[in-house]
Write a structure and sequence with these properties.
Elements: H1 6-16, H2 22-33, H3 40-64, H4 70-92, H5 100-115, H6 119-131, H7 151-159, H8 163-170, H9 172-179, H10 183-196, H11 204-225, H12 228-250, H13 268-273, E1 278-279, H14 283-288, H15 295-300, H16 309-322, E2 329-330, H17 332-347, H18 357-364
Parallel strand pairs: 1-2
Helix pairs in contact: 3-4, 4-5, 4-12, 5-11, 6-10, 8-17, 9-17, 10-12
Length: about 375
C-alpha cells in the first residue's frame, strides 16, 4: 500500500467529485441492518451498575478509613470515573435514548455530577472535532497546550524556545504519555472555566450546581476521611490514573493519522475514515476502551449504540475497501508506538502534515 502522502490525499480529494453518494449508500446499508436501533437493556444495566458500583466504592472508602491503602481505592475510583465518563460520551452522542432531552440529562448527571466534567464544555469541543477530525484550524483536539502535533505548532514554539525546550520538543513523543498524568486535573479545570465563562451554555445553572456538588462534596469527603498528607497523595493518584486512562483511550484514535490543511475539502466518508484509526482487540478491549477502539465506525455513525460497533466494523471495512478508501486498524501497543514516533517527528521539524506513519510502514513491508 502506498504511503499516505500529500499526493495520496489530494488524489482522494480529486476522486471525491466522482463519488458523492458513497456515504449515502453506506448509511442505507447500516440502517437496513438494524445497527442503529437502541439497546435499552444494555445501557440500563450499565447505568444502574455504574451507580451501584460507585456507591459501593464510596462506602468502602469511608469504611477503610485513614490509611495508605486508600491509594488503591484512588486508582480504582479513577478507573470507575473513566468508565462512567465513557457512558456520558455515549449519551452525549444520542446512543442511549431516542429522546434528546433524556440523553442531555443523562450526560449531565454522569459527566457533571458523578465525574466532575462539564457536559456543555465537552459537547462544544467534541462536536467541532467530529465535524473536522485532524483539520488544522478546525479540530480543537489538535490544539494541545504543551505538545505540538502539527509542523506549524512546532515552528511557533521553536521560535520561542531555548536549547532545553528545543531538546524537549525533539523528544516530545516520550513526554506525551507522562504529561497525561496532568490530564485529569486539566479536564476538571477546563470544565469549571467553561461553566463560569460568559460563553453560551444551555444548562449553565444546572451544570454549575452539579459541578459544585461533585467537586466540593468529593473534596470534603476525602479530607474528612483521610489525614491531609494521605488525602493529597490520594487525590494525586486518582487524578493521575484518571488522566492517563482517558488519554490512553483517546490518543490512538487520530494522532499519527493525516493532518488536513484548512484549504482541503473531503466528502464525509473520506473525511471521517482517512483521519481515524481502529484498534484491533477482543471484547475485553471493547469494554476497557468504551468502544472508542472502533473510531472509524463511531465517526461515521456517532449515534450508533456501542454494542453494535463491533458488528458494524466488518461491513464498513469491506465497504471502504470496495471504494478504494483506506481503512486503518492496528494493535493497541503499536498504535502507541505510532503516536510517539509521529509526535517526535513533528518536534524534529517534520514538514509533511499529510504523512501517515502507519501507512508508510505498511508500504515498506
Amino acid at each position: 500500500m502506498p504511503a499516505h502522502s500529500g499526493t495520496g490525499i489530494r488524489s482522494t480529494v480529486a476522486r471525491t467529485d466522482r463519488a458523492p453518494n458513497d456515504f449515502t449508500g453506506l448509511a442505507k446499508m447500516i440502517a437496513a441492518s438494524g445497527l442503529m436501533r437502541r439497546r435499552y437493556g444494555y445501557y440500563w444495566t450499565k447505568l444502574i451498575g455504574a451507580v451501584v458500583v460507585l456507591a459501593a466504592a464510596i462506602t468502602g472508602f469511608v469504611l477503610i478509613g485513614d490509611t495508605w491503602w486508600q491509594l488503591f481505592t484512588g486508582a480504582a475510583l479513577a478507573i470507575l470515573f473513566t468508565q462512567i465518563a465513557m457512558l456520558g460520551h455515549d449519551a452525549a452522542h444520542r446512543q442511549i435514548f431516542v429522546s434528546g432531552r433524556w440523553n442531555d440529562w443523562t450526560s449531565m448527571v454522569l459527566g457533571n455530577l458523578l465525574v466532575g466534567m462539564s457536559y456543555g464544555w465537552w459537547q462544544h469541543k467534541h462536536t467541532r472535532h467530529h465535524a473536522n477530525p485532524n483539520k488544522v484550524g478546525s479540530d480543537p483536539d489538535i490544539e494541545l497546550p504543551v505538545v505540538s502535533v502539527t509542523p506549524e505548532q512546532a515552528d511557533r514554539r521553536a521560535r520561542r524556545s531555548g536549547p532545553v525546550l528545543t531538546w524537549i520538543m525533539a523528544h516530545q513523543g516520550v513526554f506525551f504519555f507522562p504529561i497525561l498524568l496532568l490530564e485529569g486535573l486539566s479536564l476538571h479545570a477546563s470544565s469549571v472555566r467553561r461553566v463560569l465563562s460568559r460563553e453560551p451554555l444551555r444548562h449553565r445553572a444546572v451544570e454549575i450546581a452539579f459541578l459544585a456538588v461533585r467537586i466540593g462534596g468529593y473534596l470534603t469527603l476525602v479530607f474528612l476521611v483521610l489525614s491531609p498528607g494521605i488525602a493529597a497523595v490520594f487525590l494525586a493518584v486518582q487524578l493521575g490514573v484518571f488522566g492517563v486512562y482517558m488519554g490512553l483511550s483517546f490518543a490512538p484514535n487520530h494522532k499519527g493519522m493525516p493532518m488536513v490543511p484548512a484549504s482541503v475539502k473531503l466528502d464525509f466518508l473520506r473525511r471521517q475514515v482517512l483521519m481515524s484509526r481502529n484498534i484491533r482487540g477482543n471484547r475485553l478491549l471493547d469494554t476497557v476502551m468504551g468502544g472508542l477502539n472502533y473510531q472509524i465506525e463511531h465517526h461515521l455513525f456517532p449515534s450508533m449504540p456501542r454494542p453494535h460497533l463491533r458488528r458494524a466494523s466488518g461491513a464498513i471495512k469491506e465497504y471502504c475497501r470496495s471504494r478504494g478508501v483506506p481503512y486503518t486498524e492496528t494493535g493497541l501497543v503499536e498504535s502507541y508506538r505510532i503516536v510517539t514516533r509521529y509526535i517526535n517527528r513533528v518536534g524534529l521539524g517534520e514538514r509533511d502534515p499529510f504523512e501517515c506513519p502507519l501507512l508508510q510502514q505498511r508500504a515498506a513491508v
